[in-house]
Amino acid sequence: MVASEDIKKTVSQEDTDVTSHNPMLYDPLQDGVVKTSKTRQYLAALIICLGAVAAGTALAWTSPVLPQISINVNATTAVNVPPLTGNETNFTLSNVTTAATPTSQPNDGRLQLTVGQQSWISSLLAIGAFLGALPTGYIADAIGRRYTALAMDVPFILAWLSISFANSAGWLYFGRFLIGIATGSFCVVAPMYISEIAETSIRGTLGTLFQLLLTVGILFVYIMGSLVSWTTLSMMCLVVPIVLFAGMLMLPETPVYLLKKGRRADTALSLKWLWGKYCDSRSAIQVIQNDLDQANADASILDLFSNRGARNGLIISMMLMFFQQFSGINAVIFYTQSIFESAGSSLSASVSSIIVGVVQVIMTLTSSLLIDRAGRKILLLFSSTVMTICLAILGAYFDMKESGKDVSHIGWLPLLCMVLFIITFSVGYGPIPWLMMGELFMPDVKATAVSLTVMVNWLCVFVVTKCFGVMINDWGSDMTFWFFACCMALATVYVALALVETKGKSSSQIQTWLSGR
Description:
two-stranded antiparallel ribbon, mainly alpha, 24 helices, 517 residues
């Protein structure tokens, strides 16, 4: 059904903007005509989350590659703990820990790195991500979310070129640092972009796509890294940011950013592209404008701490990131091969890693389907409760094993706990902190707040990664698991007391809760 000419009005025409006569701006106002389409919202979210795929490939790259370019192919790398599966190195982002596993691909002789050089290759990504997070928020406010994504995709491309053709450790250092900057940047800009284009009804589902495609990137490297050489793998990883760049060229800027800059007609065009030509763009613009009116257009970093709503949102967002990294995912993934062996499995370390990667992808996908039905809070509580129990049991199992008791008859128990842990992490503390980070802030402080939250996440990555080996050596496996169990028990209490459900709530409703009104 088509609206008649006498009621066809554009947002710009209502605002006396006589320069705009784009038919895409027409709002059909008759009953039964107004409707929205979600297809392009999913498409836009998937395209920008190719940055998450690129980040996942970068994080997992060390797993199959370091054994191929080390002086001693059988050397244990990075984590100073007794080897459990041969070659292992820990590096984590959200629910992702990459364990450098044995590979069938031999050292090609082109590069031969020492253990110290391998450690730098692993750690430079985290350093780059930490440094890349903060300026990204300011850049996104200055030039827009779309152009920021395009600009920060360039380091991804340059990094993979540097790595693919590297003939010395220095080029690998340069590539890994660049890729870290790009990874940290997309951890900021992708959740921002998604939260500003999504309808309330699918905001949760779209918000989990970042985590889902991150795990897809890691699984891709786990699989292909066992089949091809490291140079071929690096060139394959280069394809992802190239496709991302091409895809971002076709996407619009977010309506929130455009309206914040006073570009009302462009805002309507963006909404029509994203929500469909029959959406009620005037009503959507009014809702966005109301949120902007409540915010301070010239907000500074001090407003994050002086404004009660912004301060509470920042605290909650940072605490969720803290619990995400201190969930014990490092410990569980590190012991994957040992747990498989305890259950009587003869699978290789690489196959075990692929199995874990598949479980992560499937369950993160499940989370994306559940998030707007079950809600954020209930999934977080479910996730942390089950993880607490699993970690406590794993601690008890390793305590018995290390004290010399016969645990062969319960070899299935740690495997069950590991699977349950990965499942519940992937539906809760894996994706939800990234989602809620984009929900909890008003447009005036969102860029800075998201940047600071991502920096806290990467700081926790660094602390957990560096301290994990010390904890295993000094405390033992049992106490390490029990420590993480205590962290998850604390997370359960915190979420139960500090959070309310944000499912289906508008930005203004969330701010009303955060401000205590």
